[in-house]
């Protein structure tokens, strides 16, 4: 019985818990899909962050070596660096001698282009300021490896390109115009000339006269005296970034990775799509709103949900982010809610059905049996062995209790008879005492007795109460128990009573009281005769 009843209670409890969890799932509080999605985003963010951090460290090491090699080659020429300005022949010879270095580092490094830019030009009389140098890049970057791709010249002397059998880019120019890549030019004016400390990763720029966006990992080139004379480094184009950092998450087909930088509260950067090929069509700057668990990304055309983490590359701060479209996020959350709701609904229905069956099997017979117990009908068959045993036990107890009650009734009647006899004896004794006290009235000082009767008028209600209790034969402790007063308070009233009545002992007080009571009885008899 105990096990079945416990099982019934547990089933009802499971039903209530299932209903509660169903409501939690309905309002989005309990959703395993949200936790799973958060785990996938966090895992992909950590993977992308670690890969970018590792690759940038390796590329920075190549950049430092590249800078040191360029310093050595520029220092090896016969002319001072200042003599290169407005000297086309010397700059052409310098590019011929340094081409192999740029080409080799392009092949060595994990990048889409390599360059060096010097703070000099072939002609400084032009209206715009230009910087001389070589900028080589791969023609097509569409896979994880760039070793087999052909190389073209984006900036540099065309004679150098022809001599080394490479084509010029469709957006080729002889020199780099000032303010084309502002962050790169900041390296020319910075204080730190040590390439191991002065490198940085620029923001993403759109190449002039080209469709693609690129960013540069660059470091200063210093002369023998430590003066910054140029910048060298590597290009990371959009196709290269996408090929290198493609998202590996297979379950969420629209998840993308991004390397962003913040400027005036908005973000720009590069994206790497998933294996499915999805790429968000962001038309402008990206706004970010940080929430408790996720961050909301988007512009006027699209909204995305994801996670982000800051990363420092040299002296520049960037943000690694992974995200997916909000509509896919909402679809995942809804699907998770539907699955959770369906599961809890099934559990709830099963628990309710089990509760109903248990109610019909055990609870209803139990309630009927309780009604029979109230009516003292112990011969009812409850169809539950334990209840039938209870009925038999109660019937036996009822018989035992009835016999005990009859015995108590007889004992009560006997005690009542004895009490009446004792009361009669007591009354007769009290009458004899009163008659004895009245017969010895002449032995009492009449003045003291009159003072006693007159003093009764001056007693307080509490003192009268205590006096009557003494007259009834109560002791001090009994009076304390009856009145709830302290013993010291009762004795205080005793002294007041003795003083006001002019008595000196309890015996004297009781004797005067008996005489007064006897006189009152005699007075009533005379009034009756008259």
Write a structural description.
There is one protein chain. With about 525 residues, the chain is an alpha+beta fold. It folds into 3 domains: about 30-50 and about 245-330, no CATH class; about 65-240, no CATH class; about 440-530, Response regulator (Rossmann fold), CATH 3.40.50. It is built from 13 helices and 15 strands. It has helices at about 1-25, 30-75, 90-110, 160-165, 180-190, 240-245, 325-375, 385-440, 445-455, 460-470, 475-485, 485-500, 505-530; strands at about 115-120, 130-140, 150-155, 165-175, 175, 200, 205, 215-220, 230-235, 255-265, 265-270, 285-290, 295-300, 305-315, 315-325. The strands form 2 sheets. Strands 1, 2, 3, 4, 5, 6, 7, 8 and 9 form a 9-stranded mixed beta sheet that branches. Helix 2 (about 30-75) runs antiparallel to helix 3 (about 90-110). The mean pLDDT is about 80.
Annotation keywords:
53% helix, Rossmann fold, six-stranded antiparallel β-sheet, alpha+beta, Tscrpt_reg_LuxR_C, transmembrane, WH-like_DNA-bd_sf, Sig_transdc_resp-reg_C-effctor, nine-stranded mixed β-sheet, 530 residues, 13 helices
Structural class: alpha+beta
Strand residues, percent? 15-25%
- Order of SSEs, N→C? HHHEEEHEEHEEEEHEEEEEEHHHHHHH
Quaternary: single chain
How many domains make up the 3D coordinates?
A: 3
